[in-house]
Amino acid sequence: MKVETIAAVQGDHNLHNYEEVSSDFNWADVEKEFSWSKTGKINMAYETIDRHAESDRKNKVALYYQDQKRHESYTFYEMKRMTNRAANLLKAHSDLEKGDRFFIFMPRSPELYFAMFGALKMGLIVGPLFEAFMEGAIYDRLDDSEAKAIITTPELLPRIPLDRLPNLKTVFLVGENVEEDGKIVDFKKHLHTCSDRFEIEWLDKEDGLVLHYTSGSTGKPKGVLHAQYAMVQQYQTAKWVLDLKEQDVYWCTADPGWVTGTAYGVFAPWLTGTTTVIIGGRFSPDAWYKAIEDFGVTVWYSAPTAFRMLMGAGDALVKEYDLSTLRHVLSVGEPLNPEVVRWGVQVFNKRIHDTWWMTETGAQTICNYPSMDIRPGSMGKPVPGIKVAIVDDRGNELPPNQMGNLAIEKGWPSMMRQIWNNPAKYESYFMNDKWYVSGDSAYMDEDGYFWFQGRVDDVIMTSGERVGPFEVESKLLEHPAVAEAGVIGKPDPVRGEVIKAFVALNEGFEPSEELIQDIQQFVKKGLAAHAAPKEIEFKDKLPKTRSGKIMRRVLKAWELDLPTGDLSTMED
Ligand code: 6R9
């Protein structure tokens, strides 16, 4: 079978020759890019902000911030001063010390980033939360991590069960006319009176950086801890994968509650001194295209759900904006359907570069690079210097084209360092002391491209055939009526499992028996008879995480009348 390819982008890319660089690459060389390689002492806030403020980039814009009410910009020098102020504020109004957990629970705003980097300057471990979390989700995370302080807004404060969290000593509130007491501190009031000079807390490479809680299919969310050293891979992938250069204006649409919003929202771009755009408020296609035009965004990192929603908003809308500055577009979070890649080429005249990684990997791991041909539907190839393989359940490497566990050889720079309070869980990720097993199933083709098939527990076995739900979902999306699709295996006495699809329809389509048959035929013809959903159920919306992942386990629980498990990461 001929594979669809979209040829490499011509031009001068940071990663010019994938094969050559991969064959001879040493992460230790990247350390030389940082000042700590000389001193041995490290701090993410120094490398992302102060270092640039003390260089030719002093007056370069670090942050453009925009929402419905505010439109602000801060240079690297201004960021240095504001984060110093925030650090002094946190220090003066709490007993926070190096290594303590400091949580962030507020909508995006410049203050969020002042506080986050101020906390990093103090050597605190930062735990970002999604603003939509409700009391139970907040409690689980603050309790498990024994958080000592949090920054939030008056609107969100009632969701924090202060009386049940004895370790939580200080609450910084970002609002107007805040009433202070022993626990509550008015962040904005003190910010401008605090000194803009601060002595950074110098750390060891292995000291903590961020604590991101992620939910598995069962049990409580787990705290994934990353070390300062993660910056090595975040920096290098900002170069190779984001392809960032001095003049770029970069926009990552992810919320900081999701690992993408920290690692690639701010760390990676600022490690390279790149101007970064942060847009607050809710998603809207108009506002997003407008942001690209307003800021002249050149590099844009988003997620498949967002691209699919933009696709749904119609191509006519795209023409109303000047998107000509865009030169590089990327995606992460879930499989990027070939249909979406084709759409990108058609409407933006840009390839959308899929990237695969996880909270646990701390940085991009399998990617499509501008200098490499894309095979739509493939996640691409491992980041140079990282060994990725498909292994069986015993940890043996499988040959090309065989579906198995997507695994990474232990020891990549940004690998998680701990599951908070749960060493046994941490160990359970590793096999034969060699492989980190991701929980995703995939295969590698004979040319080294990796193809995602689903979470291991989502893979469907029907009449002895192994079917990756993603393939079926992608085909479903190509049908003109289908806006969103989620596919699960439903237990069946004869076939083991049968394929059931949940489908949300595009505007102008109504559920009907005919439409069901038409969609079934479409998958049968386009993919394979055994891959066609035996059942199709129409839904107005599908359950998704806040980062846009279709929650197949929730579909399955609904279908089988089982408990849905932890839903704190599900969007409203
Ligand atoms: C960064 C992030 C990780 C899980 C991962 C996989 C899915 C992420 C993907 C992808 C297919 C891609 N995932 N990127 N699946 N293609 N390009 O998303 O972290 O929220 O921890 O999720 O997301 O299933 O295992 P996280």
TrEMBL record:
Residues 471-549 form the AMP-binding enzyme C-terminal domain. GO terms for cellular component: cytosol. One of its GO terms (molecular function) is acetate-CoA ligase activity. Residues 51-418 form the AMP-dependent synthetase/ligase domain. One of its GO terms (biological process) is acetyl-CoA biosynthetic process. Belongs to the ATP-dependent AMP-binding enzyme family. This is acetate--CoA ligase.
